[in-house]
Design goal:
4-stranded antiparallel beta sheet, about 90 residues, 5-stranded antiparallel beta sheet, 9 strands
Amino acid sequence: MAQAIQRIKLLPIDTCKPYYTVQSRENHMLKAKQQVLQIIAGTAWVSNNGQDYVLKAGDAITLMCGGDNVVVVSGMRGQAVEYTLSE
């Protein structure tokens, strides 16, 4: 079975784009539309199509459509995480 989320590494971090913040003990739910989610600060747990990833600042993944198309983004270690989305 093909991997639903492709992990990529983007450098440098683009701090000029609008970003989203997931506070401690919160989750963001997104619809996967092949966007690139890049972590700006913190460590994130990202789940999509039954696959889980731990990403740190500078890491990015391409959110591929499939299954229910739901992506969950959470902060880890009780800390907030910041991320951007690019189409």
